[in-house]
Amino acid sequence: MTAQAQPEKRPNIIVRFFNMNTSGELGGRKLPLWRQLLLQLMTLIIAFEVMFPIMYVVTLSFSSKTTRPSTLQLIPNEFSLEAYKQVLDRPTANPVTFVQLLRNSAFLSVGVGLVALLVAVSAAYAFSRFKFKARQILMILVFIPLLMPVIGTATPLFLMMNSFRVTECAGDDIAISPFTTCDGQGKVVFNLRDSLPGVGIAMISGALPFAVWNLKGYLDTIPKELEEAAMIDGADPNQIFTKIVLPLAVPQLAVTFFLGFIGHWQEFALPWLFLSQPEDYTLSMTMYNMVGQYANAIPWNRFAAMAMIVALPVAVIYIALQKYIVGGLVAGGVKG
Q: What angle do helix axes 112-129 and 135-143 make, rounded to 10 degrees?
């Protein structure tokens, strides 16, 4: 005699409810309901943690009161644009307009980003395609600055930039230090350290290592056969670089420029150490000047409005380059 098969015991309705598949996906991994609810709960917690300070700053920027708020509010009780008007008129007590501050920040962020990108893509192409002596050693030397914080190189950059000065000597003679000097005392008419171009040069030196390494890895994935075919058709090296390599590298160029733009736009340490004239200040430096010694003395609504205005260009640049940025990130993740 054979043993009678025992009927399969089904789990109770609660267990079946939390283990049912609600994703509706035909392929991929099927997630039970309890796991989907857990993932969605974690996503909501992360989203709230990220959006809470942003919403708080937005609410604060629409307030007409300059005092520090006593409660945490995410929905503004009023919609006053007075703080934005005051910031756009004169952010601080310094006689510098918002347009001038915006121009200084744009000069450093966009100018430094474009110059660093132009130099980096040329260097990355040389490292990727050409075989020369000490190539590996040079790549390691390019990588070493990435191991150091930017502020760690501030002292040598400060001394180097400060050594280049244009001095008006007695008798209307001009001395350019460190090449020539005045016999006696003179009047310094230009100091590379205390100027936007000097800060830009210092920022370029910090932006180049990352840009070279980021672009070099991407250029390695471009097939050399395309360049060889163009060479057979009669294209010279300059045409190959400008008409074949650069168009194929546009997504990664956009990613490199955007990542550099964020860092340059928000850069504070180097401009604060180098610049001393209010007309050369940037937006990040102005935000620091809005912070007083005591918390009750800070114009909180204007500070929040300034923060929103400073964050707006980053969002605009990302939206403008979104197609290329997403393409560059995906291509970099696939090609390695």
A: 150
Tell me how many domains the chain contains. 2
Contact present, 265 and 109 (Cβ < 8 Å): yes
> How far apart are alpha carbons 52 and 66 in whole angstroms?
21
pLDDT score, position 332: 47
Q: Answer whether residue 274 is part of any domain.
A: yes
Average pLDDT, the chain: 82
- Write the DSSP string, 15-69: HHHHHSB-S--SSS---BHHHHHHHHHHHHHHHHHHHHHHHHHHHHHT-S--SPP
Average pLDDT for 250-272: 88
- On whether both 284 and 231 belong to a single domain, the answer is yes
Q: Is 186 inside any structural domain?
A: no
For 120-168, write each residue's pLDDT tens digit.
999 999 998 888 888 888 888 888 887 887 778 888 889 998 888 888 8
Whether 211 and 151 map to the same domain: the answer is yes
d(C-alpha 126, C-alpha 94), whole Å: 47
**What is the Cα–Cα distance from 63 to 83, expressed in whole angstroms?**
7
Please state, in angstroms and rounded to a whole number, the distance separating the CA atoms of residues 152 and 31: 48
Could you write out the three-class secondary structure of 165-206?
EEEECCCCCEEEECCCCCCCCCEEEEECCCCHHHHHHHHHHH
Within-domain flag for 143: yes
pLDDT at 1: 46
pTM of whole model > 0.70? yes
